[in-house]
Amino acid sequence: MNIKRELLLGTVKKMHEEGYDYLVKITAVDYVKTLEVVYILRNLNLNKDELLEVTITPEDAWINSIIEIYKAAEWYERELQEMFGIKIKDKKLKKLLLEKWDGKGYPLRKNFLWNKPYEKV
Amino acid sequence: MALTRINIGPVHPSTHGVARLVVDLDGDTIVKVEPHVGYLHRGVEKLVETRMYMQNPPYMEKIDYVAPMSVDELYVATVEKAMGIEVSEKAAYARMILLELQRIASHLFWIGSVTNDLGQSFTGFMWGFRDRDVILRLLEEATGQRMFYVNMRLGGVTREFPEDFESNVLNAMKYMEKRIKSYENFIEKNPIFIQRMKGVGVLRIEDAINLGVTGHVLRASGVKYDVRKNNPYYQYETLNFHTKILSYGDNLSRYRVRIMEIEESIRIIRDSFFKLQSAQGSMVGMPVKLISPKPINKISIVNRELPRGEGLMYMVAEDQKPYRLSMRAPTFINLSALNHIARGHRLSDLFAIFATLDLVMADVDR
Q: Is the ipTM beyond the 0.90 threshold?
């Protein structure tokens, strides 16, 4: 299900009330012109998974946090922030989780070349 | 009272890999634990984007080096799904046997490290490792390697099982059943073990779901979810086995769930060998070639019950390489729940809780 960024929080809240109480994964894909954030939610009673996709642009990369609804989201959102440079709106999450990276760019974006020399910001 | 902040690590505490914990204490009581991870981060998800499909399995095995075959299989299954390759019935049973052997080996390794951490001298550690070695020898027989097997091929496994493999495995399973009884006598009747495990690190069911924990941690809190049952793959639905759950959610439940899982795995292996005799098709998969068949599905999502919990791969396929491969690492999410579980406990309980989560830091960091 592809939804608009503004509707994300409302949709997730509604789905949580409907029984999708387990967050499986949040991840993102860089399609160069757009970034796609993917949420996988699960209804444990009905044994059903649902996919939510939110398309945003790299220039205006931010997304609402769903930590209030799923505590599991915190580390995933920190990973998004660190690896893709997607800002988590209205949440002051710690910047680094995995990379301890103080160089330029975001490692999982396509314009980040792994064999380029390190440049400090 | 002012809080005391102490730093633990970076050390190698019962985990496999390096973790650092920053703990805020009020006297001896934990107020907050903050895990610092990333010491084993290798950027696997970025690395695989630069390699052809079948060049990647060796990298995948290093994600969880206590149970390498399970992650390898998860990756190969994702590629198979992208390319629309079917796995024959015989290959499916062969994979199930190998994966369950791997699960038992991984659980025994964990029993070794958890008993060592709880101060049961060295006996538990040596027992766990000795019994794990029995399984590793079997896996060596079947794959040619002791640890990093790279045994999965598109559509099957590398080679047929050797002639006396079945009888060797079945004998080992008999031995394993006896050993499980010894563990019960030695470990579960040990007063030190019980005191440090019972009622410690309780995770209630609603928190377990909200925190998204997985595998034995989720099942010990009373959620009946096992991918092998709930979203069956290969031939798991044809076999008779149970998802074992307990409802206390404490350290001891997490330990007991694992012991019961070993028993279930033994059953699965026995049944699989029985069904393998009449299974159709070839066990051996396609030979590894650099140029793979073209993917037909752009996005493929596959989930599997890894020894440490549910692993999931989300792959966006390109012509010859993965465009993006994202993995849900089971221990990553289990570690993020540590703060919630450990809060309110004494500092000495922290490592008992930490140990029962069964973390492999390479899996957390990827």
A: no
